[in-house]
Design a protein that fits this description.
The chain is mostly beta strands. Helices cover about 15% and strands about 55% of the residues. The chain has a 15-stranded antiparallel beta sheet that branches.
Length: about 280
């Protein structure tokens, strides 16, 4: 009996040590979440610019829910865009993005399946944190079906498109001035390159729910060749603790698109940005 008790105590100590090491390994890439709760759903209308005319192109749904990833408590975020038949003959838009972040906001997994025009590609990123470093296993499936794998380890944190946006929703911009820049490395299925978010000040935006909101305007840039920064998207997020995306302006390879908020559910904080 005494021997069994000792063995149990040793197992408990080893489990505690494992948990401590896991937390320490995630510590460098953690962040506080003040924006969203355990079940948030945001619906959008999509518009596509075709020959200088904006047409209704489809819908998008962003969901963030409490989940687990291989036994680790996590937030699961997904963005699903669906085009309609009206513009499919010109441009097919079928994107599905998924990510898991720990409850401490450390990236765990990312996937993007994108059908843009006639091309379909898949990107995956698997994160781990051995020895306090950030290791990523990257997977790309090309349009021709070929698989490409690579694995790299970084001393600093790296992020994918979804995880950095989730983190950015908890930034505190109260002291920011126009032009404030947040730099970070961005990864996808086969590359890592510099990216940044630039704060462009405050403005008012009318959503497709019929309301106006005070918003913070932020623009997301990527630098793929080490020379020129490319404007990827602008986000207009509510000027309150939720930082809800009210409008998104996206620069696509085949044109440009906009998304306007239609409805929201499961919001974590009072929506004080709504203009009555």
């Amino acid at each position: 009996m005494i021997k069994t008790t000792r063995i149990m105590k040793q197992k408990i100590r080893l489990l505690a040590l494992f948990l401590i090491l896991t937390l320490m390994a995630h510590a460098q890439c953690t962040f506080r979440n003040t924006a969203f709760g355990n079940e948030e759903h945001l619906n959008y209308n999509l518009y596509y610019n075709w020959q200088f005319v904006w047409v209704k192109a489809g819908t998008a749904l962003w969901s963030t829910v409490a989940s687990t990833y291989h036994g680790t408590p996590a937030y699961k975020a997904s963005l699903i865009t669906r085009g309609n038949g009206r513009v499919d003959k010109y441009f097919v838009l079928r994107d599905t993005l998924l990510c898991y972040d720990s409850r401490q906001m450390a990236p765990l997994y990312y996937r993007k399946g994108a059908r843009e025009g006639k091309r379909y590609t898949v990107d995956e990123v698997f994160y781990s944190y051995p020895g306090g470093k950030c290791r990523v296993k990257q997977h790309r499936i090309d349009n021709d079906g070929k698989h490409h794998w690579q694995e790299k380890t970084y001393n600093d944190c790296v992020f994918d498109m979804m995880s950095i946006f989730m983190r950015a929703r908890s930034f505190n911009p109260e002291s920011w001035k126009k032009g404030q820049t947040v730099n970070f490395p961005i990864v996808d299925g086969n590359s890592m390159h510099p990216a940044k978010i630039v704060y462009n000040g405050k403005t008012e935006v009318k959503a497709d729910d019929g309301h106006k909101y005070r918003c913070l305007e932020m623009t997301y840039y990527e630098n793929e060749n080490g020379k020129k920064w490319r404007n990827i998207a602008s986000f207009y997020v509510s000027d309150d603790q939720n930082h809800i995306p009210i409008r998104l302006d996206m620069r696509l390879k085949f044109g440009s698109a906009k998304a306007y908020l239609v409805s929201m559910k499961g919001i974590n904080n009072p929506v004080t940005s709504k203009i009555k």
